[in-house]
Write a structure and sequence with these properties.
4-stranded antiparallel sheet; mainly beta; 101 residues
């Protein structure tokens, strides 16, 4: 199956909210699409010029109907930043101390 979206979803970091902008293939903002999250209709906010809704505790399926095409997006939970020290091998002592081998 080949996916050809008529609307591209550009996700923004909204903290407690999920906020996104929809763009068409030419890069123009879409304000008249029908947007649903798990069957709940979302309305375009003219003040912020985004679609937004409170973040769900579960992954959500977003359906965008634009130009007669159903576009589906799966938006999951944000992954927490984890710092990993990739140089985590034990340090070797620069010289043996007296009495150590």
């Amino acid at each position: 199956m080949i996916q050809q979206h008529t609307a591209n979803l550009m996700l923004m970091n909204g903290g407690k909210d999920v906020a996104f902008v929809l763009m068409d293939a030419d890069g123009k903002e879409i304000t008249d699409a029908e947007v649903y999250r798990n069957h709940k209709h979302l309305v375009f906010d003219k003040h912020t010029e985004t679609y937004h809704i409170v973040r769900s505790k579960k992954d959500s399926i977003y359906k965008v109907v634009y130009k007669g095409v159903n576009n589906f997006y799966n938006i999951g939970q944000p992954k927490p930043f984890v710092y990993r020290n990739y140089n985590s091998t034990p340090r070797q002592k620069p010289w043996p101390f007296c009495g150590e081998k």
